[in-house]
Write a structure and sequence with these properties.
about 230 residues; about 60% helix; ammonium channel activity; Ammonium transporter AmtB-like domain-containing protein; membrane; transport
Length: about 230
């Protein structure tokens, strides 16, 4: 199939040869399955943010099952399973594309199918729908920031202190720079700081650095955050 569909390990079928010696002797096929299950769940939560309050729970659960069992593993195999993207030199350390972009496209498809939220367009004009609880939103973003250390740091797939510490530093710097860049941009444009923009900037910095957090230097991370 030229590396397009990936079925390696389908149905949790493996043997002792499934131990991945390329990372370290303690990282096995089963360890990778549990770690990747967290990635799949993360991708599904991206979609939930776009369709929340506009879709039946039963419908969303059906979609989630299909997404985490078919769509995400298939797309992930293109790089992490040695598929066609990997053969062409594509690099995605912890899922900027394979997790967040694929999840984002699925969210866009859901939003298009459901249509605009009620009250979004009034008399042909766009109406802003501000967040209902910004303190709670801020807590959520900071919890995501904390969890991202496990997301990116864990993607080193070994106990290598040098690689792990670099990954954690670039992740943190990109997030901080992204938040500050978005906050200052909103301050310049709107003449006042916008908390929601700052929070979105943090998330943008985290997502953007995820592709190369293990290879980029601190100065690169400092630039990637605001650019995102």
């Amino acid at each position: 199939f030229n590396g397009f569909p990936g079925f390696a390990g389908f149905g949790l079928t493996t043997d002792d040869a499934g131990i991945t010696q390329a990372y370290n002797t303690g990282y096995t096929y089963w360890t990778d399955f549990l770690f990747q299950a967290m990635f799949a769940a993360t991708a599904a939560t991206i979609v939930s943010g776009a369709v929340a309050e506009r879709i039946k729970l039963s419908s969303f659960m059906i979609f989630t099952v299909l997404y985490v069992t078919l769509i995400y593993p298939w797309a992930g195999s293109w790089k992490w399973g040695g598929g066609w993207l990997d053969a062409r030199g594509f690099y995605d350390f912890a899922g900027s594309t394979l997790v967040h972009s694929v999840g984002g496209w699925a969210a866009l498809a859901g939003a298009i199918m459901l249509g605009a939220r009620r009250g979004k367009y009034v008399a042909g004009r766009i109406r802003a729908l501000p967040g209902h609880n910004m303190p709670l939103a801020a807590i959520g973003v900071f919890l995501l920031w904390l969890g991202w250390f496990g997301f990116n740091g864990g993607s080193v797939l070994s106990a290598d202190p040098g690689a792990t510490s670099l990954t954690l530093m670039t992740t943190c710097i990109a997030a901080a720079a992204g938040g500050l860049g978005a906050m200052y941009t909103s301050w310049i444009v709107s003449k006042k700081p916008d908390l929601s923009m700052g929070l979105n900037g943090i998330l943008a910095g985290l997502v953007s650095i995820t592709a190369g957090a293990d290879l980029m230097g601190l100065h690169s991370a400092l630039l990637i955050g605001p650019i995102a």
